[in-house]
Automatic annotation (TrEMBL):
One of its GO terms (biological process) is cell redox homeostasis. The keyword Oxidoreductase applies. The active site is at residue 46. Belongs to the peroxiredoxin family. Prx6 subfamily. GO terms for molecular function: 1-acylglycerophosphocholine O-acyltransferase activity; peroxiredoxin activity; phospholipase A2 activity. This is Peroxiredoxin-6. InterPro entries: AhpC/TSA, Peroxiredoxin_AhpC-typ, Peroxiredoxin_C, PRX_1cys, Thioredoxin-like_sf, Thioredoxin_domain.
């Protein structure tokens, strides 16, 4: 079964979570969404990841992004593990809950349906655990980006935030962002745009890099 492809409608599943039962689309409302999965509760890399995600949550909210995690353990474990995550990651003793819910997927139904299992990493019963998936969902409930890391490689949540910035910019403007781009830096003119159209659309100017091929495809313009 092929997994979810970019542009696919993201399934509107119902799930039990640490904040109660949700329907995904209703939970997301008009926001963007980041759904990220974890191999198991009470595992070290995941504990650092959820803490990092929690520390960056205000940056995600500023961008109108709702976060939601998933792990293939039960609600009781999610609540118990949350205390460990907070104790490990939050200096502030007043910090008593995670700023996003964790989905309960102890029957692995969602993990299977969303193509999240890592066949190379098994639990003590020999069953595959969830890989570290990141799905970024647009306000139209379509999949805008997916990244799949194996269990042994923790994610970089600054990169996920950077990808959100690029997705949100390019959703509204006909530009593309280059390697390692950060908000405020120059963006690129898509190859399909004619010189005349680019000149009209980007009054701040378009800089074209001379290349050995003589082709004029490497075009920058200031971010507007
Ligand atoms: C972890 O989160 O630390 C982890 C989980 C499964 C396999 C390897 C590492």
């Amino acid at each position: 079964m092929p997994g979810l492809l970019l542009g696919d409608a993201f399934p509107d599943f119902e799930a039990e979570t640490t904040i109660g039962k949700i329907k995904l689309h209703e939970f997301l409302g008009d926001s963007w969404g980041v759904l990220f999965s974890h191999p198991r509760d009470y595992t070290p890399v995941c504990t650092t990841e959820l803490g990092r995600a929690a520390r960056l949550s205000s940056e995600f909210s500023k961008r109108n992004v709702k976060m939601i995690a998933l792990s293939i353990d039960c609600l009781e474990d999610h609540h118990g593990w949350t205390k460990d995550i907070l104790a490990y990651n939050c200096e502030d003793s007043a910090c008593c809950s995670l700023p996003f819910p964790i989905i309960v997927d102890d029957k692995r139904e969602l993990a299977v349906a969303l193509g999240m299992l890592d066949p190379d990493e098994k639990d003590k019963d020999g069953l595959p655990v969830t890989a570290r998936c990141v799905f970024i969902i647009g306000p139209d409930k379509r999949l805008k980006l997916s990244i799949l890391y194996p269990t042994t490689t923790g994610r970089n949540f600054d990169e996920i935030l950077r990808a959100v910035d690029s997705l949100q910019l390019t959703a509204g403007k006909r530009v593309a962002t280059p390697a390692d781009w950060k908000p405020g830096e120059c963006v690129m003119v898509p190859p399909s745009m004619s010189e005349e159209e680019a000149a009209a659309l980007f009054p701040a100017g378009v800089y074209t890099k001379d290349l050995p091929s003589g082709k004029k495809y490497l075009r920058y313009t200031p971010q507007q």
